[in-house]
Structures are given as structure tokens and as C-alpha cells.
Design a protein that fits this description.
- The protein is α/β, with parallel strands linked by helices and 322 residues long.
- It has a single domain, classed as Leucine-rich repeat, LRR (right-handed beta-alpha superhelix).
- The chain is built from 10 helices and 12 strands.
- It has a 10-stranded parallel sheet, with no helix packed on it. The chain has a two-stranded antiparallel sheet with strand order 1-2.
- It starts with a helix and ends with a helix.
- It comes from Cherax quadricarinatus (Australian red claw crayfish).
Length: 322
């Protein structure tokens, strides 16, 4: 298995006849006045079979000036090897360790390298214990974007520590089914603005959830490909005090509705949402049309949805509903 410096030479070194060409903007190699190779600031070493850091002096020479490092899908097993690399990257702002199979937890928190400039951390498919996630975050006080997808998390383990810098969390494809576990993410990240829960088997939001307390700043929520199966859960989305964008597609709830019905019935229920499933902003005209369609759809139903807060933009429709 190659060390990191050896992998760098194989991928970027001019002397290597099998060197790969990486199509990344602005990563052309340059030479210093000394004639020594200078690597790009964005270093992509995914799937290079790296298992060891290698000689630390070589790591320091090879990685001088690197600001983004992708080590995903390598053979890294021991955290001490990762820290040997990271201690020579003081300007690192992006780190991707996805799909490395670490065999043991971080052995000694005091040995963790302080990553004071790191703003994006990707840990997908690492299946790290929550204790290690907390240790890494405690040593990376400026992380804004955190990726924890496909880590097998059924529960979310919190501590007394809050991570106020984190505003965006990708939690896709974890087998978490209970909304209270998701609320633990809100407790851990009090300034969370973007939360992506796509492909988590969540069946519902809960009526006794603490949406305002745990998600006071959430603006964007993705529930795509979850197991949401009730309009009650859609109604509860209104409890997020600042939420303006929702992704909700490919859920059991929508199986018996046509595309236009899905969109109109959803918009009519969500008075705060300004953008649904991407695309353009919801216009006043579209919202009014959605509310009229909502009335027509449920007009002859014996049990009508709770409309206490519906039709806020088109109050003239309310009398037709009473």
C-alpha cells in the first residue's frame, strides 16, 4: 500500500509514466524557484489505496499550501496516521475521509490535531462512533458543513457540548426512524440552517416535537425518500419558525396523488414555505391556485383538515371553507 507522499507522486508526479490526469479547475502543477514541485491547493487522492502517512518530512514538503484534501475510499485504519498528515496542513479548510474503515476509535483525544481553519468535514460511510465525531468537532471549532451520511446511526448521541459554528448537516441514508433522535441534532447544532435527511426511514414528525426550541434557525429541510406517510407530518412542518425551503418527494404519502395534486395540496398546507422541491419561488398566484385546489379537493369530505392557519395569503377564500 502506498504512503501519502508515494500516492502524490503516482498521481501528480511528472516522473511517473502512469500519472493520472485530474480534471479539477486551477490545479495545474507549478515549480518553485528551487525547482521543486508545488502541488495544487486542492489535493484529490481518492481511491489511492493509502494506508500510512509515510515520512512526515515528505508529507510536509508534498502538501505545503494544500487547503482541500480528499482522502476518501482509501485504506486508512488508524487515526494516528491521519493525524500525522493533518498536523502538516495548517491551512486546511476541507477534509474528506469518507469510506475509510477505521478499526479503532480515536485512542487519545489529546493527540488530535487542532484544525482551526477547517470549515467542511466529510465523514460519510466511516461508521464512526459518536464519541469520535464529538472529539473531531471539538478540535475543529470553525466547521460549518458536516457530512455524516451512511454511518448506520439509529440514534444520535449528544453531550453538553454545543457546536455553534455548524450550520449545515448532511445526515442522508442513516437508519434513524424516530423524530426525537433528529431533534438531538438540533440540540447539538443550535445554529443549524440546513438539514438533509434524505433516505432516512422516518415515518413521521411528532406532534409533541420541540421544533421552535431545537431548530430556531433552520431554513432548509430535505425529507426526500423518507417514509413520511401522513399529511399530519406535513402540517407539522409549519412549526419550524424560519423554514422557507422544503424537499419532500418520493414518500409513501404521495403514492396515490397525481403530480399536480401533490404540489398543490402541499403548498396549501405550508404557509411559510417559499420554495418546494427546488425550482422557482412559490408565487402569490401559485399559492392562491393551490389553496383553491385544496378547497375543491376536500369540499365534500366529512373530515376536513385543520385549517386554523391556512389561507393566510388569500383570506377571501376562508368563508368558502367554513
Amino acid at each position: 500500500m502506498p504512503s501519502l507522499p508515494e500516492a502524490v507522486d503516482m498521481k501528480y508526479g511528472d516522473e511517473c509514466p502512469n500519472a493520472q490526469v485530474t480534471e479539477v479547475a486551477c490545479v495545474a502543477l507549478t515549480l518553485k524557484r528551487s525547482g521543486r514541485q508545488r502541488l495544487p491547493s486542492v489535493l484529490i487522492l481518492s481511491e489511492c489505496d493509502i494506508e500510512k502517512a509515510g515520512d512526515e518530512e515528505e508529507v510536509e514538503r508534498k502538501c505545503e499550501g494544500v487547503r482541500e484534501l480528499d482522502l476518501s475510499r482509501n485504506k486508512l485504519k488508524e487515526w494516528k496516521e491521519v493525524f500525522k498528515i493533518l498536523r502538516h496542513l495548517p491551512s486546511l479548510g476541507f477534509l474528506n475521509l469518507s469510506y475509510n474503515s477505521f478499526e479503532t476509535p480515536i485512542p487519545d483525544p489529546s493527540e488530535v490535531v487542532s484544525l482551526t481553519n477547517l470549515t467542511r468535514l466529510v465523514l460519510n460511510g466511516t461508521k464512526l462512533p459518536w464519541k469520535d465525531v464529538h472529539i473531531l468537532l471539538e478540535n475543529a471549532p470553525r466547521v460549518e458543513e458536516l457530512h455524516l451520511c451512511k454511518n448506520g446511526y439509529v440514534t444520535v448521541e449528544t453531550t453538553s457540548q454545543k457546536y455553534s459554528s455548524v450550520s449545515r448537516v448532511h445526515f442522508n441514508n442513516n437508519p434513524s426512524t424516530d423524530w426525537p433522535e433528529i431533534e438531538s441534532l438540533g440540540q447539538m447544532f443550535p445554529y443549524l440552517e440546513v438539514l438533509i435527511l434524505a433516505e432516512c426511514p422516518l415515518g413521521s414528525l411528532t406532534k409533541d416535537g420541540h421544533y421552535r426550541e431545537n431548530f430556531p434557525n433552520l431554513k432548509y429541510l430535505s425529507l426526500n425518500s423518507t417514509k413520511i406517510c401522513s399529511w399530519d407530518s406535513v402540517d407539522l412542518v409549519n412549526k419550524f419558525p424560519k423554514l422557507t425551503e422544503l424537499r419532500l418527494q418520493q414518500c409513501p404519502l404521495y403514492e396515490n396523488y397525481k403530480d399536480e395534486e401533490r404540489r398543490q395540496l402541499t403548498i396549501a398546507r405550508l404557509w411559510r414555505i417559499q420554495r418546494l422541491n427546488g425550482g422557482a419561488l412559490i408565487t402569490p398566484e401559485e399559492r392562491e391556485n393551490a389553496e383553491r385546489a385544496f378547497i375543491r379537493y376536500y369540499m365534500n369530505e366529512e373530515r376536513r383538515p385543520n385549517t386554523k392557519n391556512l389561507f393566510t395569503n388569500t383570506g377571501s377564500l376562508t368563508p368558502w371553507w367554513k
